[in-house]
Amino acid sequence: MKILIASDIHGSRIYAQRVVDLMAEEGAAQLVLLGDIYNHGPRNPLPDGYDPMGVAAILNAQVGRLTVIKGNCDSDVDTLISDFEFVSEGVLFVGGKKIFLQHGDKFSIDALPKNCGDAFLYGHYHTGFIERRGGVLVANCGSVSLPKNGTLRSYLLLDGAHLALKDLDRNLLAEADI
Fold first, then answer.
1. Which of 4, 3, 2, 29 is nearest to 16 (CA)?
2. How many CA atoms lie within 13 A of 168 on its CB side?
3. Cβ–Cβ under 8 Å, residues 154 and 147
4. Which of 65, 62, 67, 124 is nearest to 91 (CA)?
5. How far apart are CA 143 and CA 114, in angstroms?
6. How much is the pLDDT for 42?
7. Per residue in 121-160, is it b (16+ CB within 10 Å) or e — as a string?
8. pTM exceeds 0.85
9. Which of 98, 103, 108, 144 has the most CB atoms around its CB within 10 Å?
10. Ramachandran region of residue 160, left (φ > 0), alpha (ψ -120 to 50) or beta?
11. How far does CA 77 lie from the centroid of its chain?
12. Measured on CA atoms in the order 16, 21, 24, 26, is the torsion positive or negative?
Protein backbone atom coordinates (compact mmCIF):
# COMPACT_ATOMS: atom_id res chain seq x y z
CA MET A 1 0.00 0.00 0.00
CA LYS A 2 1.33 3.42 -0.94
CA ILE A 3 1.12 6.24 1.61
CA LEU A 4 1.67 9.88 0.66
CA ILE A 5 3.23 11.96 3.44
CA ALA A 6 3.20 15.75 3.35
CA SER A 7 3.56 18.63 5.76
CA ASP A 8 3.29 22.34 6.28
CA ILE A 9 0.33 23.24 4.06
CA HIS A 10 -0.06 26.40 6.18
CA GLY A 11 -3.57 27.18 4.94
CA SER A 12 -2.93 27.02 1.20
CA ARG A 13 -6.01 25.68 -0.60
CA ILE A 14 -3.93 25.42 -3.79
CA TYR A 15 -1.34 23.11 -2.23
CA ALA A 16 -3.89 21.13 -0.20
CA GLN A 17 -5.62 20.33 -3.48
CA ARG A 18 -2.29 19.46 -5.09
CA VAL A 19 -1.57 16.97 -2.29
CA VAL A 20 -4.94 15.27 -2.84
CA ASP A 21 -4.32 15.23 -6.61
CA LEU A 22 -0.89 13.67 -5.98
CA MET A 23 -2.54 10.89 -3.99
CA ALA A 24 -4.50 9.91 -7.10
CA GLU A 25 -1.52 10.34 -9.45
CA GLU A 26 0.72 8.22 -7.20
CA GLY A 27 -1.95 5.62 -6.47
CA ALA A 28 -1.69 6.29 -2.72
CA ALA A 29 -4.36 4.73 -0.53
CA GLN A 30 -3.58 6.85 2.54
CA LEU A 31 -2.46 10.40 3.32
CA VAL A 32 -0.40 11.32 6.36
CA LEU A 33 -0.03 15.02 7.14
CA LEU A 34 2.77 15.93 9.52
CA GLY A 35 1.31 19.17 10.86
CA ASP A 36 0.83 22.88 10.28
CA ILE A 37 -2.34 22.43 8.29
CA TYR A 38 -4.37 25.67 8.44
CA ASN A 39 -2.38 28.53 9.99
CA HIS A 40 0.53 30.24 8.26
CA GLY A 41 2.47 30.95 11.46
CA PRO A 42 3.84 34.33 12.55
CA ARG A 43 7.28 33.85 10.96
CA ASN A 44 5.95 32.73 7.57
CA PRO A 45 4.47 34.77 4.76
CA LEU A 46 0.94 34.00 3.62
CA PRO A 47 1.16 31.16 1.12
CA ASP A 48 -0.45 31.32 -2.31
CA GLY A 49 -4.17 30.58 -2.09
CA TYR A 50 -4.40 31.14 1.68
CA ASP A 51 -7.84 29.78 2.56
CA PRO A 52 -7.97 27.67 5.74
CA MET A 53 -11.69 26.91 5.33
CA GLY A 54 -11.00 25.74 1.76
CA VAL A 55 -8.23 23.49 3.08
CA ALA A 56 -10.66 22.06 5.64
CA ALA A 57 -13.20 21.25 2.93
CA ILE A 58 -10.56 19.49 0.82
CA LEU A 59 -9.17 17.46 3.74
CA ASN A 60 -12.55 16.66 5.29
CA ALA A 61 -13.44 14.93 2.01
CA GLN A 62 -10.46 12.60 2.62
CA VAL A 63 -11.25 11.76 6.24
CA GLY A 64 -11.32 7.98 5.77
CA ARG A 65 -7.85 8.02 4.19
CA LEU A 66 -6.24 10.62 6.43
CA THR A 67 -3.94 10.68 9.49
CA VAL A 68 -2.98 14.11 10.83
CA ILE A 69 -0.14 14.86 13.23
CA LYS A 70 -0.48 18.12 15.16
CA GLY A 71 2.10 20.78 14.33
CA ASN A 72 3.26 23.78 16.31
CA CYS A 73 0.96 26.09 14.28
CA ASP A 74 -2.10 23.84 14.76
CA SER A 75 -4.41 24.92 17.58
CA ASP A 76 -7.29 23.31 19.42
CA VAL A 77 -9.73 25.52 17.52
CA ASP A 78 -8.60 23.84 14.27
CA THR A 79 -10.48 20.74 15.35
CA LEU A 80 -13.75 22.68 15.12
CA ILE A 81 -13.53 22.81 11.30
CA SER A 82 -11.98 19.35 10.94
CA ASP A 83 -13.79 16.02 10.59
CA PHE A 84 -10.56 14.30 11.69
CA GLU A 85 -8.42 14.22 14.82
CA PHE A 86 -5.00 15.78 15.26
CA VAL A 87 -2.62 13.49 17.18
CA SER A 88 0.70 14.49 18.69
CA GLU A 89 2.66 11.51 17.34
CA GLY A 90 2.05 8.42 15.28
CA VAL A 91 3.59 5.08 14.39
CA LEU A 92 3.24 3.12 11.17
CA PHE A 93 4.11 -0.54 10.83
CA VAL A 94 4.77 -1.15 7.14
CA GLY A 95 6.71 -3.94 5.50
CA GLY A 96 7.88 -5.21 8.87
CA LYS A 97 9.33 -1.80 9.74
CA LYS A 98 8.43 0.62 12.54
CA ILE A 99 8.12 4.24 11.38
CA PHE A 100 7.75 7.04 13.94
CA LEU A 101 5.89 10.22 12.91
CA GLN A 102 6.03 13.64 14.55
CA HIS A 103 5.80 17.22 13.30
CA GLY A 104 9.45 17.97 14.07
CA ASP A 105 9.04 20.68 16.69
CA LYS A 106 10.03 18.22 19.46
CA PHE A 107 12.31 15.82 17.59
CA SER A 108 14.62 16.14 14.59
CA ILE A 109 17.56 14.47 12.87
CA ASP A 110 19.75 15.89 15.65
CA ALA A 111 17.37 14.82 18.44
CA LEU A 112 15.79 11.50 17.51
CA PRO A 113 12.95 10.15 19.62
CA LYS A 114 13.84 7.24 21.90
CA ASN A 115 12.90 3.88 20.43
CA CYS A 116 11.75 5.45 17.17
CA GLY A 117 12.21 2.18 15.35
CA ASP A 118 13.54 1.85 11.82
CA ALA A 119 12.59 5.31 10.54
CA PHE A 120 11.63 8.77 11.76
CA LEU A 121 9.59 11.05 9.48
CA TYR A 122 8.86 14.70 10.19
CA GLY A 123 8.22 18.15 8.71
CA HIS A 124 8.45 21.54 10.49
CA TYR A 125 11.71 22.76 8.91
CA HIS A 126 10.29 23.05 5.35
CA THR A 127 13.39 21.36 3.90
CA GLY A 128 13.07 17.90 2.38
CA PHE A 129 15.77 15.23 2.74
CA ILE A 130 16.39 11.54 3.38
CA GLU A 131 19.45 10.53 5.46
CA ARG A 132 20.61 7.71 7.71
CA ARG A 133 21.60 8.29 11.33
CA GLY A 134 23.03 5.10 12.70
CA GLY A 135 20.46 2.41 12.06
CA VAL A 136 17.58 4.88 11.62
CA LEU A 137 16.37 6.30 8.30
CA VAL A 138 15.44 9.94 8.91
CA ALA A 139 13.37 11.92 6.42
CA ASN A 140 11.81 15.34 6.28
CA CYS A 141 9.06 15.70 3.70
CA GLY A 142 9.69 19.43 3.29
CA SER A 143 6.80 21.84 2.80
CA VAL A 144 4.25 21.72 0.02
CA SER A 145 3.49 25.44 0.28
CA LEU A 146 6.43 27.29 1.85
CA PRO A 147 9.77 25.56 1.17
CA LYS A 148 12.87 27.06 2.76
CA ASN A 149 16.64 27.19 2.19
CA GLY A 150 16.38 26.81 -1.58
CA THR A 151 14.61 23.45 -1.40
CA LEU A 152 11.68 22.52 -3.63
CA ARG A 153 8.07 21.99 -2.60
CA SER A 154 8.12 18.30 -1.74
CA TYR A 155 6.48 15.24 -0.20
CA LEU A 156 7.34 11.65 0.68
CA LEU A 157 5.90 8.52 -0.87
CA LEU A 158 6.09 5.35 1.20
CA ASP A 159 5.65 2.15 -0.80
CA GLY A 160 6.19 -0.85 1.45
CA ALA A 161 9.62 -0.27 3.01
CA HIS A 162 10.74 2.05 0.17
CA LEU A 163 10.69 5.81 0.79
CA ALA A 164 10.95 8.44 -1.96
CA LEU A 165 11.21 12.21 -1.68
CA LYS A 166 9.59 13.93 -4.67
CA ASP A 167 8.85 17.45 -5.84
CA LEU A 168 5.29 18.44 -6.70
CA ASP A 169 5.88 17.48 -10.34
CA ARG A 170 6.63 13.94 -9.06
CA ASN A 171 10.33 14.18 -9.90
CA LEU A 172 12.47 11.99 -7.64
CA LEU A 173 14.75 13.99 -5.33
CA ALA A 174 16.01 11.19 -3.05
CA GLU A 175 15.10 7.64 -2.10
CA ALA A 176 16.05 4.86 0.29
CA ASP A 177 14.86 1.57 1.65
CA ILE A 178 13.98 1.60 5.33
1. 4
2. 20
3. yes
4. 67
5. 25
6. 87
7. bbbbbbbbbbeeeeebbbbbbbbbbbbeeebbbbbbbbbe
8. yes
9. 144
10. left
11. 20
12. negative
Which residue(s) pair with 50 in the sheet?
A: 12
Asked if 136 and 120 touch (Cβ cutoff 8 Å), the reply is yes
| Amino acid identity at 142 | G
What type of residue is 57? Answer: A
What pLDDT does 160 receive?
Answer: 95
* Sequence letter at residue 35: G
Report the Cα–Cα distance between both ends of the chain, in Å, rounded: 15
Taking only the tens place, the pLDDT of each residue in 50-90 is: 999 999 999 999 999 999 999 999 999 999 999 999 999 99
DSSP β-ladder status, 154-159 and 136-140: unpaired
At position 39, the amino acid (one-letter code) is N
DSSP secondary structure, the chain, as one string: -EEEEE---TTBHHHHHHHHHHHHHHT-SEEEE-S--S---TTSPPPTTB-HHHHHHHHHTTGGGEEEE--TT--GGGGGG-SS-EES-EEEEETTEEEEE--SSS-BTTBPPTT-TTEEEE-SSS--EEEEETTEEEEE---SS---TTPPPEEEEEETTEEEEEETT--EEEEEE-
